[in-house]
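Risk register update: the risk that structure generation would not scale has been downgraded. Supporting records follow, first protein first.
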Amino acid sequence: MLLINLMREIFDACCLGFGCDTKAVVHILAHRDATQRAFIQQEYRAIYGDELTHHLSSELGGDLKKAVLLWLQDPVGRDATIVRKVLSGDTIDLKVATEVLCSRTPSQLQQLRGVYLTIFGAYLEHDIESQASGDHKKMLLAYVTMPRYEGPEVDGAIVMEDAKALYKAGEKRIGTDEKTFRRIFSERSRAHLAAVSAAYKQNHGKSLEKAIKSETSGNFSYALRTILYCAENPGLYFAKILRKAMKGIGTDDTTLIRVIVTRTEIDMVYIKAEYHKKYGKALHEAVHSETSSHYRTFLLSLLGHPPSH
């Protein structure tokens, strides 16, 4: 009842002609989990006969609007929306599609494919087929459709076989056997690939990451490296993406929003730890210096560091 009463009080002020209490909206929504956000939207629909997102879309603006509306979506629908936009929108961005798809678990991808079809009336595989090409396309199609084990156990013998097969498919020969890379990276679990990476370095004196960089290129290389990074240390992978979004002149707010919003309820504690370890600065301090106003407050709240007033 407390949540319902608070929701009614704030959104009456926001959407019934009294102007938007943006501070209150940010405070409430940033501190509610996915189930609570869904409940708030359900109650709003029941009370006002309209979607909360419609009202917030008209009341908020800029990067805050983008962040809040993305946050309000359920996690699977949010991923589907992000991927659909970069595969069929005005600007095709295969790197973002690769980031999202190759960083999700098999169970997450299975749910994403179903929701994608339900929301957009299109198959994810069809959109990949239409926009990607070559080994990158083959890699994405295999990765999103292939079932993979998600547990921690690995078979040491198969690990050694795969490490050897990847060496033969890449560094040991002239040219690259991309099919072997695609097969291993689409069929093996994260725990297995992490073990393969360690075995590769031990047996061949060079990291598997460097081998991928030297033997493959473009979006195919990025897909392989994303899969490998998320097998070994997804926190570090996303910390690097956030750093790149904030480094230099200007801020890539689209990336900043995408990563913070999609990872907050998954592994943000690890991302924050890896960011501080690698760059010697707290992630929330970096975000604070690159953002302002209610947008800053919202992102910092998601990070667990709302600014003090």
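Supporting record for the second protein:
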Amino acid sequence: MDHQNHHSSSSTSRSSLPGLALPDHHHHHHQALQNNQPTTPSRYESQKRRDWNTFGQYLRNQRPPVALAHCNFNHVMDFLRYLDQFGKTKVHMQGCMFYGQPEPPAPCPCPLRQAWGSLDSLIGRLRAAYEENGGSPDTNPFASSSIKVYLREVKECQAKARGIPYKKKKRTVAGPATAGVVMAGAGGTSEATAVAVAGMGTMGMMGLRDHQSSSSSSSASSSRFS
């Protein structure tokens, strides 16, 4: 009896010593399961991957096909012009009676285009994807000065045609209210702009599938440079 009491007292004192904790096998097992679970990519990462696959498919559809390692800013600009056919932003021609009017009172036959804000966001994602897939920053065609000039021209042209002045971003850190104004000016105020930004990858893939020849049409999940 005395021996059992001594053993019980000794066990109790050991388990209650400060600084010591018994291993929690259930906690470690639960943590290991969490670490093994695949992380869900963000909306930005998912869109970036779709855009990258769309651009790679576009290059493969050229005659002759263009390798990713050999593409330059000319291929990028041709790609941007190609995407215009899937745009949802009305851009009035200079001869149109609604030229320069932000809210025309009636429909017109002027073409739909990709909004400048959509193209600017697309180029940003592709510029990052190029380097993430092994491309060198020094040869990144999406960071070319020619692409920047092209985007600026598209921005100014659409601003005049649609009567929407784009506000320049301030160098100082903007508060929530100011940031909202800047973003609205940069991306346009039409609902079609928001749709184009969100669905760029989907629209591109739809057009590419229609544009494909009888060659292989399987979509690559990721493209690597040789």
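The beta strands are 89-90, 112-113. On this basis the risk owner (M.S.) recommends closing the item.
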